[in-house]
């Protein structure tokens, strides 16, 4: 192993920079040449590949987004596109590739590594935490903390005006951001795709709350919940409980940005270091995660979108603590 490359792909997540930094500096420590690839697979196809030094990653551990930029690339779905990308890597004699991204990016890396002789390592970078083979993903902790901070602020207004707020958080088709932010802000209800919620039950509870004059109510809804998101939940509540002062708030993209938390920086640093370690040891075509605080390898073809089991006891806890 002499020359390795690193790229970020798919949706950006806070902590990706910390992971890039770890890959670059660990590679240089082992006397490898490290290349950065701009704009994910698109840059691989367009030969936007440049040598990186230790100072190329100075002052980025604390920054959100990704200095390598990220993109989605249609051509990479086709063999011809992947072949072109391979030829560009060959021009730089690259013999190892680290892909920081989500399950889509791993699908691409899996195909690429089957077709061509370039070992790939995937690192889970997504705020959604919806990937098998790891307890968390780079960006999740930051996104949850951002959501918590925002919901706390909304709670102040909810309290001042005795309002009911229905708040939508991100997560695509996973509900982890909703679950964690909802528990941490004392939400009465958490709606998420992993568990069906009957809106009727919520309405009944709201009416009961009103009878006992519990005036502040927060409902956190994952964007992928099958009821149809916060707008729809808010619409139903307004229709069925017109006496309540109900507002809807969609947190949106603030959840994707910002300085990574300490937890995400540590995870990203550890995984970036482990990626180079794995390439040096000849461990190929795996995604590296952390399970029970230990480095864990998952073959790229198993590093798929996964709904982890959510212990039903959490919903009991939510109910008891909000009552
Ligand atoms: P994420 O990695 O965040 O899940 P995407 O699903 O958009 O994001 O995937 C990122 C990129 O990975 C895509 O734009 C594409 O270039 C590549 N990719 C995704 N799925 C495949 C696939 N099945 N085959 C080849 N390339 C893929």
From TrEMBL:
Annotated function: Catalyzes the phosphorylation of D-fructose 6-phosphate to fructose 1,6-bisphosphate by ATP, the first committing step of glycolysis.
Catalytic activity: beta-D-fructose 6-phosphate + ATP = beta-D-fructose 1,6-bisphosphate + ADP + H(+)
Organism name: Chitinophaga polysaccharea
Catalytic activity, EC: 2.7.1.11
Name of the encoding gene: pfkA
Protein name: ATP-dependent 6-phosphofructokinase
Quaternary context: Homotetramer.
Highest taxon in the source lineage: Bacteria
Active site: 128
Lineage of producing organism: Bacteria, Pseudomonadati, Bacteroidota, Chitinophagia, Chitinophagales
Protein family: Belongs to the phosphofructokinase type A (PFKA) family. ATP-dependent PFK group I subfamily. Prokaryotic clade 'B1' sub-subfamily.
Binding site for ADP: 21-25, 155, 186-188, 212, 214-216
Gene Ontology molecular function: 6-phosphofructokinase activity; AMP binding; ATP binding; fructose-6-phosphate binding; identical protein binding; metal ion binding; monosaccharide binding
Residues binding Mg(2+), per UniProt: 103
Record domain Phosphofructokinase: where: 3-279
GO biological process: canonical glycolysis; fructose 1,6-bisphosphate metabolic process; fructose 6-phosphate metabolic process
Residues the record lists as binding ATP: 11, 72-73, 102-105
Pfam families per record: PFK
Residues annotated for substrate binding in this entry: 126-128, 163, 170-172, 223, 247, 253-256
Pathway: Carbohydrate degradation; glycolysis; D-glyceraldehyde 3-phosphate and glycerone phosphate from D-glucose: step 3/4
GO CC terms, sorted: 6-phosphofructokinase complex
Activity regulation comment: Allosterically activated by ADP and other diphosphonucleosides, and allosterically inhibited by phosphoenolpyruvate.
Key words, A-Z: Allosteric enzyme, ATP-binding, Cytoplasm, Glycolysis, Kinase, Magnesium, Metal-binding, Nucleotide-binding, Transferase
Cofactor: Mg(2+)
Compartments, record wording: Cytoplasm
């Amino acid at each position: 192993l002499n020359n390795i490359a690193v790229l970020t792909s798919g949706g950006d997540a806070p902590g990706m920079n910390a992971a890039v930094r770890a890959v670059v500096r660990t590679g240089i420590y082992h006397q490898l040449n490290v290349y950065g690839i701009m704009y994910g697979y698109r840059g691989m196809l367009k030969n936007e590949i440049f040598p990186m030094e230790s100072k190329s990653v100075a002052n980025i551990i604390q920054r959100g987004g990704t200095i390598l930029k990220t993109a989605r690339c249609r051509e990479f779905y086709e063999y011809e596109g992947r072949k072109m990308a391979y030829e560009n890597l060959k021009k730089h004699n690259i013999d190892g590739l680290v892909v920081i991204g989500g399950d889509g990016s791993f699908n691409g890396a899996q195909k690429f590594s089957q077709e061509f002789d370039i070992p790939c390592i995937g690192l889970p970078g997504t705020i959604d935490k919806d990937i098998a083979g790891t307890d968390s993903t780079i960006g999740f902790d930051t996104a949850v903390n951002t959501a918590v901070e925002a919901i706390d602020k909304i709670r102040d207004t909810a309290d001042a005006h005795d309002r009911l707020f229905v708040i939508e958080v991100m997560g695509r088709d996973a509900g982890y951001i909703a679950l964690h932010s909802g528990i941490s802000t004392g939400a009465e209800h958490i709606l998420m795709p992993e568990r069906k919620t009957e809106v009727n039950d919520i309405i009944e509870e709201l009416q009961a709350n009103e009878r006992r004059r519990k005036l502040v109510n927060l409902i956190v809804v994952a964007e992928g919940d099958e009821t149809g998101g916060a707008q729809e939940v808010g619409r139903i509540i307004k229709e069925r409980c017109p006496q309540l002062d109900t507002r809807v708030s969609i947190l949106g993209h603030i959840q994707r940005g910002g300085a990574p938390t300490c937890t995400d920086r540590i995870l990203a640093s550890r995984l970036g270091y482990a990626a180079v370690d794995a390439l040096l040891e000849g461990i190929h075509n795996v995604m590296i995660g952390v399970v029970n605080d230990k480095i864990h390898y998952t073959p790229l073809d198993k590093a798929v979108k996964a709904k982890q089991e959510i212990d039903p006891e959490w919903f009991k806890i939510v109910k008891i603590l909000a009552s």
